[in-house]
C-alpha cells in the first residue's frame, strides 16, 4: 500500500522487513479497499469528462443535446444523472459495461451514481476522494436524496450540513442524521411525502401456503405502535400463564402470532385483557357486582421520547397570533418527522412535557445505582453507546462507571456522577470488564477508547475519530486481568507510537 493511502486514513504503511500482526494487516486491507472504491468513482467521472460525441454527426439546428441527429443512429449527448449533472456521451455506457463487468443499463446506473455524487454533493465527493468517507456511504446519501425528490440546490444544502461530520459517524447514525436534514431542507416536500405515504395505508393477507398466511400492512404511526404494544403485552401474558402452569413458554414470535389472532376476536380479546388487567379494589367489587369492561385496562401503553429545539415550537407573536411551528422533531428509535406532520402522528395521545435537562448542572449520587434524573442527563449528553461508530441508543444501554465504583469507600465522594458515567451496550460493557478494553472520560461526554489490541479512538456525542495505535506501554492489561487470562492469550508484537492525543472538541448533543 502506498504511503498516501495509509496516511489518509491514519495508518502507517508496512515497513519493509518490519513486524506486523493480523490487526495491522487487516487495517491496511480495509484502507486499500476504501482507496480503490474512491479511485473507481474518480475514473468513471474522468471518462465522462473525456469521452466526446463527434459533433459533425449532430445537425446545426438541434434543439437539445439528445434531440435532432444528423445521422440516424449516431451517438448523442444524453442526461444520465439527476438535476444538476452534465450530459455525457451515449456510447460511453457500452465501453464501461465491459470494464465494470455489468450490463449497459448497469453501467449507466454506475455513471449516474458517480455524476450525482460529484455535482450534487461536491463536499461529500471531496470527502470520498480524501478517504474520509467510504464510497458506499456517499452513494447511499445520494440515493436517499434522490428518493426524497430533492433538487440540485436542496442537495447542495444537505451536502453543506452533512459533509463535515459524516466521517465521524457509523452509517446507521449518519443515515438518521441524513433523514432529519432531508426533512429540514424542504419541510413542504417532506409533508407531501407524509401525505403520499398515508394514502398507501392498507392490510394485505396472502393466500394459504402450507397452512400459513403472510400478513403485511401499513398503518398510521400511533395505530401501528399501539398494535405493537398490544401484541407484546398479550405475548408477555401468555408466557406468564405457561410459566405459572409449569410449562415451557412458546417462542416469542409464536406467542405474538397468537396475540394478533386473539385481537381478531374483539370480545375474547377484551375479556382476556380485562381478566389480566389491574385487579379491582374491594370497593369497586362491592359497587360493581355486574361484570363490566374497563377501557383503561384494554388500552396499551405506548411511550415515545420526542426531542425538538425550543426555536421550533409555535408561540404567539406581538399581536397574539400563533404561527405554525417549523423544523424537525426526533422520535427516539423511530427517526425524524416535520412539525407540521407531528399532530397527525400524536393524535389521540397524552403528551407529557419533561423539564429541560441542564447539561451544565449534573445531579450526583453516593449510591452505586444511577437515579432516573442522572440517567436522563447522561442519555441527553451521550445519545449513543460509546463503542466506536456505534448506533445503539443510550436508552438501551447500561450506564457504566468510567472509574470502577469502590463499594468500600464510605466517604461519600459522589462516585455516581455524570463525569464518571457513560452508556455502554451490554457486549461493550462485558468487554470492558473482562477483556481489557478501556474507556477514559477526558471531560464530561468525551471519551478516549483503547481496544485490547491497542487501537485508540476519540468518541464524542458527535461520533468517532480513529487515532491510530497506542504505544506498547498503554496496551498492557491491568495486572489482575493479565493474571486471570493466564496462557489464554498469545504473545503480540510491540506496537508503534500512535499520534498525539488531541484536545477534546465540542460536546453539544447532535441534532438528530
The largest beta-sheet arranges its strands as: 12-13-14-15
Discrete helix count? 19
> Regions with pLDDT < 50 over 5+ consecutive residues?
12-17, 57-63, 278-291, 473-512
Mean pLDDT: 75
State the separation between the terminal residues, measured CA to CA: 37 Å
**Structural class computed from helices and strand pairing:** alpha+beta
Report on this model:
The chain is α+β, with helices and mostly antiparallel strands. Helix content is 42%, strand content 12%. It contains 19 helices and 15 strands. It has helices at 3-8, 22-50, 92-100, 104-120, 122-129, 135-147, 152-162, 171-185, 187-198, 221-244, 252-263, 266-275, 282-287, 295-298, 339-345, 372-381, 426-434, 472-475, 479-485; strands spanning 77-79, 87-89, 202-205, 215-218, 306-307, 328-331, 335-338, 364-365, 398-401, 416-417, 421-424, 438-443, 446-450, 455-460, 463-469. A four-stranded antiparallel beta sheet has the order 12-13-14-15, with no helix packed on it. It is globular. 23% of the residues are buried. The model is unreliable at 12-17, 57-63, 278-291 and 473-512 (pLDDT under 50).
What's the short version?
It is built from 19 helices and 15 strands. The protein is an alpha+beta fold and 512 residues long.
List strands and helices in order, with pairings.
Elements (H helix, E strand, L loop, with lengths): L2 H6 L13 H29 L26 E3 L7 E3 L2 H9 L3 H17 L1 H8 L5 H13 L4 H11 L8 H15 L1 H12 L3 E4 L9 E4 L2 H24 L7 H12 L2 H10 L6 H6 L7 H4 L7 E2 L20 E4 L3 E4 H7 L18 E2 L6 H10 L16 E4 L14 E2 L3 E4 L1 H9 L3 E6 L2 E5 L4 E6 L2 E7 L2 H4 L3 H7 L27
Antiparallel strand pairs: 1-2, 3-4, 5-6, 6-7, 8-10, 9-11, 12-13, 13-14, 14-15
Amino acid at each position: 500500500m502506498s504511503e498516501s493511502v495509509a496516511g489518509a486514513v491514519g495508518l502507517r504503511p508496512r515497513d519493509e522487513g518490519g513486524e506486523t500482526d493480523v490487526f495491522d494487516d487487516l487495517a491496511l486491507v480495509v484502507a486499500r479497499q476504501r482507496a480503490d472504491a474512491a479511485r473507481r468513482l474518480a475514473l468513471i467521472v474522468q471518462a465522462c469528462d473525456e469521452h466526446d460525441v463527434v459533433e459533425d454527426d449532430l445537425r446545426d439546428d438541434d434543439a437539445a443535446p439528445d434531440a435532432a441527429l444528423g445521422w440516424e443512429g449516431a451517438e448523442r449527448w444524453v442526461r444520465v444523472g439527476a438535476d444538476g449533472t452534465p450530459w455525457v456521451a451515449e456510447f460511453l455506457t457500452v465501453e464501461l459495461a465491459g470494464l465494470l463487468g455489468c450490463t449497459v443499463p448497469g453501467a449507466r446506473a454506475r455513471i449516474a451514481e458517480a455524476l450525482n455524487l460529484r455535482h450534487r454533493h461536491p463536499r461529500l465527493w471531496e470527502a470520498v476522494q480524501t478517504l474520509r468517507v467510504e464510497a458506499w456511504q456517499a452513494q447511499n446519501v445520494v440515493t436517499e436524496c434522490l428518493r426524497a425528490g430533492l433538487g440540485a440546490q436542496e442537495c447542495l444544502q444537505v451536502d453543506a450540513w452533512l459533509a463535515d461530520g459524516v466521517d465521524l459517524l457509523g452509517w446507521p447514525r449518519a443515515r438518521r442524521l441524513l433523514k432529519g436534514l432531508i426533512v429540514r431542507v424542504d419541510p413542504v416536500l417532506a409533508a407531501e411525502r407524509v401525505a403520499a405515504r398515508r394514502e398507501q395505508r392498507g392490510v394485505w393477507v396472502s393466500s394459504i401456503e402450507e397452512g400459513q398466511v403472510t400478513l403485511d400492512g401499513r398503518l398510521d404511526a400511533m395505530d401501528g405502535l399501539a398494535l405493537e404494544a398490544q401484541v407484546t403485552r398479550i405475548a408477555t401474558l401468555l408466557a406468564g400463564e405457561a410459566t405459572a402452569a409449569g410449562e415451557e413458554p412458546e417462542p416469542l414470535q409464536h406467542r405474538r402470532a397468537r396475540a394478533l389472532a386473539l385481537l381478531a376476536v374483539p370480545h375474547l380479546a377484551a375479556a382476556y385483557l380485562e381478566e389480566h388487567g389491574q385487579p379491582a379494589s374491594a370497593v369497586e367489587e362491592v359497587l360493581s357486582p355486574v361484570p363490566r369492561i374497563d377501557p383503561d385496562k384494554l388500552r396499551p401503553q405506548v411511550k415515545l421520547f420526542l426531542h425538538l429545539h425550543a426555536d421550533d415550537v409555535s408561540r404567539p407573536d406581538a399581536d397574539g397570533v400563533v404561527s405554525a411551528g417549523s423544523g424537525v422533531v426526533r422520535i427516539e428509535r423511530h427517526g425524524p418527522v416535520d412539525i407540521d406532520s407531528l399532530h397527525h402522528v400524536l393524535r389521540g395521545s397524552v403528551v407529557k412535557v419533561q423539564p429541560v435537562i441542564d447539561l451544565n448542572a449534573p445531579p450526583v449520587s453516593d449510591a452505586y445505582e444511577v437515579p432516573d434524573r442522572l440517567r436522563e442527563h447522561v442519555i441527553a449528553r451521550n445519545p449513543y453507546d460509546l463503542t466506536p461508530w456505534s448506533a445503539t441508543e443510550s436508552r438501551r444501554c447500561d450506564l457504566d462507571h468510567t472509574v470502577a465504583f469502590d463499594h468500600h469507600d464510605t466517604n461519600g465522594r459522589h462516585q455516581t456522577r455524570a463525569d464518571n458515567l457513560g452508556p455502554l451496550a451490554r457486549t461493550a460493557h462485558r468487554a470492558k470488564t473482562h477483556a481489557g478494553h478501556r474507556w477514559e472520560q477526558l471531560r464530561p461526554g468525551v471519551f478516549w477508547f483503547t481496544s485490547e489490541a491497542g487501537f485508540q479512538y476519540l468518541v464524542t456525542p458527535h461520533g468517532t475519530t480513529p487515532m491510530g495505535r497506542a504505544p506498547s506501554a498503554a496496551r498492557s492489561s491491568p495486572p489482575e486481568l493479565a493474571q486471570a487470562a493466564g496462557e489464554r492469550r498469545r504473545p503480540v508484537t510491540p506496537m508503534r507510537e500512535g499520534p498525539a492525543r488531541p484536545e477534546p472538541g465540542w460536546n453539544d448533543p447532535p441534532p438528530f
